[in-house]
Specification:
globular; 17 strands; Metallo-beta-lactamase, Chain A; about 350 residues; about 25% strand; alpha/beta
């Protein structure tokens, strides 16, 4: 291993917990800018990203990028599932370890969380999230809202009430089940943590255009979200025609694809691939996965489609990129393989 790589690895205090992810991220941070320019010149048709001053940039624009992290890629049980010893639950591949489904968007230093999953505390600690500025709810099922109490830690530090958004149906259930989150509980010393808002159409959130996408989760309405040219559609089994019209021209689609076996309330992998073929995004990532699905199965997926995994980090620039790949993978991205760093 080259000396500067070894030193960067040694300086990363988190490498014992997640050596591959933390080292790669730190390595990108510590690359000299001149070296990055050389790499870019040697690979003119490849995307290149560098991290500095908490901002992400690509070589084709001087503007800050929108950063999207898949906090969790698993179904309601998570993977491994309790009591199960199947090959996926027993897998040694980190990408088969799935917390409950959620994403977070960072734009202009603001953090937009989609759903407060049951594993929220673990996810935000893992990703070093400093604060939450807004929450978008897709629906009111337990695996998507029962981490809401973990937002109290942010309130202890920042003393801010966080705005949250969702459909009228979702917000009614969440406000009823977690009334102390919105109203506080003076006798127990709880201050209000969140302010509820009904989202029924496009809005601007910290410079990012957010559009709700109505979906059906079996017989239950749910809400997907489009962020500029990215769409996140979890927990759905059908997309109404009026919503499909709002999903044209996507560069990235993150879509529910529960398992291989059909399910009444979720797209299975076959159904999700039909949606991808119909919507024709530049790239698609399948999420909300059960233990039926091994990450290694992704080698069989069509070109431009892959399985999600926890801590997958993507970035996009507000301006249209001119490189071949609109989204730039920073973590666990070939051609770097783990074996190169085991020495």
């Amino acid at each position: 291993m080259p000396t500067f790589m070894h030193q960067a690895f040694q300086r990363n205090e988190c490498h014992r917990q997640d050596p591959l992810r933390r080292f790669r991220l730190h390595l990108i941070c510590t690359f000299p800018f001149d070296l990055l320019q050389v790499i870019a010149a040697m690979n003119p048709d490849k995307p290149l990203a560098c991290i500095g001053q908490n901002m992400l940039f690509n070589r084709h624009s001087k503007g800050p990028a929108m950063k999207l992290t898949i906090l969790g890629s698993g179904t309601s049980t998570g993977v491994p599932m309790v009591g199960c010893h199947c090959p996926v639950c027993a897998s040694g591949d980190r990408r088969d370890k799935r917390t409950r489904a959620s994403i977070i968007i960072e734009n202009s230093g603001k953090y937009i969380l989609v759903d407060t999953s049951t594993d929220l505390r673990k996810q935000v600690i893992r990703e070093h999230i400093p604060h939450i500025d807004a929450v978008l709810f897709t629906h009111s099922h337990a695996d998507h809202i029962h981490g809401i109490d973990d937002l109290r830690g942010f309130h202890f530090i920042h003393k801010r009430i966080i705005p949250c958004y969702g459909s009228e149906e979702s917000m009614k259930v969440i406000a009823r089940n977690f009334s102390y989150i919105f109203k506080g509980m003076e006798a127990a010393g709880y201050a209000p943590l969140m302010e509820q808002n009904i989202i029924s159409g496009p809005m601007d959130l910290f410079g990012c255009r957010v559009e709700p996408i109505p979906l059906m989760h079996g017989h239950m309405p749910t809400t997907g979200y489009r962020f500029d040219d990215v769409a996140y559609l979890t927990d759905c089994s059908s997309i109404p025609d009026t919503s499909r019209a709002k999903l044209a021209g996507l560069r990235l689609l993150i879509l529910d694809a529960l398992r291989y076996t059909p399910h009444p309330n979720h797209y299975n992998i076959e159904g999700a691939l039909k949606v991808v073929e119909d919507l024709r995004p530049e790239h698609a990532i399948l999420t909300h996965l059960t233990h039926e699905v091994s990450y290694s199965d992704g080698a069989k997926l069509p070109s431009g489609v892959e399985f999600a995994y926890d801590a997958c980090l993507l970035l996009s620039n507000p301006e249209k990129l001119t490189c071949n790949e609109g989204f730039i993978r920073l973590i666990l991205r070939n051609p770097w393989e783990r074996k190169e760093f085991d020495a």
